[in-house]
Design brief:
Layout lengths: L42 E6 L1 H5 L9 H13 L8 E2 L12 H6 L11 E2 L3 H13 L10 E7 L2 H8 L4 H17 L3 E7 L3 E2 L3 E2 L2 H13 L4 E6 L6 H11 L8 E5 L6 H10 L4 E4 L19 H8 L5 E2 L9 H14 L7 H15 L1
Parallel strand pairs: 1-10, 1-11, 2-3, 3-4, 4-5, 5-8, 8-9, 9-10
Antiparallel strand pairs: 6-7
This protein binds 3-hydroxy-3-methylglutaryl-coenzyme A (HMG).
């Protein structure tokens, strides 16, 4: 990445007194999703991140039509919140170029949201310009953005081209404010909440402060990311205990990559700590361009399978839930489009069972 730039805008004191990272936005927060649930209930919301987090790291060119088709299939399977792409620099993440066209290829459905990642003012301007050209549509192409920060300076440098966490928060704050002013909901991400691929173990107190700062900017929910996929359940528990001291658990989500095979265990740990929103990626697609070696997010099929017939139910648009069989089919379909097999364990298991049953 290019050289570190100094932050042109100094941080001003904010209203969240206990946070190291102070922001000036008074709390004008986006409301919860309509289907959002109190953490006390056992209904789990899945944020399907396959089309964004899953595809952003692919080497080959993926046609826009395939990306839109993926999203349409996910909605048909019951997904209620599908991250559709990013308004980031195509120089750094070429797979997300054309997100505007992807949004235009989506069959909108009431109650389904299609957030997009926005890293800076330029990304927001590009999105708002697109939305203004579709202002006569009965349903907006999207009503939500996701902004992203990290819990280490080193990852901030790699992912956001800024030297420090504080600089990145200062850049995000006006983006969040402008988005809220335009009536968009804002979700936040904190990357590397347990391990940073560049600087090692992360202090949970830093995660707490970054999360609080994002909340204070007006994010209705902050997703805590084990970007590297190395976290173990006891480490996730440690971070959650710390963050919950300042941000209510019903404003938190879990985002676990599966590099070391602990993602489902981490999901279950997060649920046992009161988290009710989990990010997941169909077919286990993905990786992060700035986390060398990291594999995809926890597979949506694996989460659905783990929660099936348990004390938890999953919110969705097919008979009130997300259809596991349909999700398995989508995982295989998109993996084949990318020239490989689904890496979802549940996806492979269901396929093997179907083949066995066919032979009987
Ligand atoms: C961070 C920035 C914005 C810094 O952008 P910058 O400060 O402008 O610096 P830059 O040198 O990186 O900019 C490169 C070029 O991109 C342009 N540019 C700049 N911004 C935009 C934009 N929004 N849309 C379109 N173009 C843009 C900019 O104008 C410049 O154009 P040039 O002068 O070379 O012609 C840029 O480097 C960037 O977009 N990087 C990609 C970041 C990214 O997408 N990371 C992956 C997503 S985060 C993630 O995966 C983690 C998460 C959320 O899943 C959770 C987890 O797992 O932890």
């Amino acid at each position: 990445m290019s050289t570190i730039r100094a932050c042109s805008r100094p941080l001003r004191p904010g209203s969240f007194a206990s946070s190291t990272f102070r922001t000036s936005t008074s709390i004008q927060r986006s409301g919860p999703r309509k289907y959002g649930t109190a953490a006390a209930s056992n209904v789990v919301n899945i944020v399907e991140v396959g089309p964004r987090d899953g595809l952003q790291n692919e080497k080959g060119v993926i046609p826009v039509s395939v990306k839109s088709e993926l999203i349409n299939r996910l909605v048909d399977a019951g997904a209620l919140l599908v991250e559709a792409g990013s308004f980031v620099s195509p120089k750094w993440v070429p797979q997300m170029a054309g997100t505007g066209e992807v949004l235009q290829g989506i069959r909108q459905k009431p109650g389904v949201h299609f957030p997009v990642l926005v890293p800076n003012q330029k990304g927001l301007e590009n999105l708002l310009e697109l939305l203004s050209t579709h202002s006569n549509s009965p349903v907006p192409l999207t009503d939500e953005i996701a902004i992203f920060a990290a819990a280490s300076d080193a990852f901030t440098k790699a992912n956001l081209n800024l030297a420090t966490i504080a600089e990145s928060l200062a850049r995000l704050e006006p983006v969040a404010r402008a988005a809220l002013d335009k009536g968009l909901r804002v979700r936040g991400y904190v990357s590397v909440v347990v391990h940073c691929p560049f600087s090692g173990k992360v202090d949970p107190k830093v995660v707490k402060d970054v999360t609080a700062a994002l909340r204070n900017m007006g994010c209705y929910e902050v997703s805590l990311g084990d970007t590297v996929g190395r976290a173990r359940p006891h480490e996730v528990a440690e971070v959650l205990e710390e963050v919950k001291k300042v941000v209510p658990v019903n404003m938190l989500a879990g985002h676990f990559h599966d590099t070391f095979g602990t993602a489902v265990a981490n999901v279950m740990t997060a649920l046992s700590h009161g988290i009710r929103t989990i990010d997941a990626s169909v077919g286990g697609l993905g990786g992060c361009p700035y986390s060398p070696g990291a594999t995809g997010n926890v597979a949506t099929e694996d989460v659905l399978y783990a929660l099936k017939d348990s004390e938890y139910s999953v919110a969705g648009g097919v008979n009130g839930t997300i259809d596991l069989d349909k999700m398995v089919n989508i995982g295989w379909w998109i993996s084949e489009q990318l020239g490989r097999e689904s890496i979802s364990r549940a996806g492979r298991g269901v396929k093997a069972r179907r083949e066995r049953e066919k032979k009987q």
